Amino acid sequence: MPSLPRYAVVMAGGSGTRFWPRSRHRAPKQLLPIVGTRTMLQETVARVSPPIDRSRVLVVTGQVHARAVRAQLPELPTSALLVEPRGRNTAPAIALAALHIAREHPDAVMAVLPADHAIADRGVFRADLSAALDVAERTGALVTFGIQPTHPETGYGYIRPGARLDGAARARAFRVRAFIEKPNAARARALIARGGVFWNSGIFAWRARSILDALRTHVPDVLAPLEAAVTSGSRHALRAAYGRLPSISIDTGVLERANHVAVLRARFAWSDVGSWAAVEPIWRNGTDRHNAVRGRALAIDSRGCVVDSPQRLIALLGVEDLVVVDTRDAVLVCRKQRAQDVRMVVDELRRRRLGRYL
User: Fold this and answer.
1) Which of 28, 58, 207, 302 has its CA 20 to 30 A from that of 320?
2) Which of 85, 62, 92 minimizes the C-alpha distance to 225?
3) For helices 220-232 and 235-243, what crossing angle results, to 10°?
4) What residue ranges do the domains of the chain occupy?
């Protein structure tokens, strides 16, 4: 049995711009049922219990989404929702959660999970999550999950593992030798060909005290204002603190600088569902062996297409590798290999002041 309390922090503050037009400003990807009948946020919260008791699950989200998050998770107490006055990337979100946890249990172990990942096998995931929490508790390391790559993906960061951690998680835990930024296509192919790398999943485990010490060392301009605001208990102080925080990720702000960082090789199948192209293997079914369809589509001499159209019939004739998304007021059509660039559409809508489509 674990000797220290265990918490889960679910980060639900993203904007989901690469899933436009289904994902919008007030209903981003994590609040939508992208991979099943429940929303991605609901799936993530359900996935962590066990090994983490539901009473120790926290959700960090932005002000604009707080009401929707509460509506989707009525089983969580109001105190479980931590609302950021404005988005400042993952380092401030994690710092805010760690400070709240440390006030109750300074030596608690916490898992940090994005709300928008797809993980089908709950049993394997829960076993791996327990293993990561064990490593974090036993060693004090900042632990990240590494995913065995299946193809030369350019949308993920990579991790090069170093020496094994003795006795940790049946020899699946390693010290991190290097983090590799998202590569271009040629670099990704070279990394896969050489081997010995993992995808960086963005799922973490560490002691609350360990991550707070690392934040204090490497990004004091993030931790110090938040620490003062949380200590004061004032919402005004928290808003003021967020007004002067830098926008920085936990990866670049802390993990790439810290000394005691470990990676646990995950055994569960994983996708960050980072674009419309990523839903293809999830949506494929027996009715159409050549295309991934959710909703109504008629495909003739067409292959490799992703279609999302719950209401209207989409007819495809003689096309390949397209993404087609039909919503009430907007339709997206793009080549599948450009799915990562859908955020460019959102940027252009903002530039043209077409806010009604955002």
Assistant:
1) 28
2) 92
3) 170
4) 6-265, 276-357
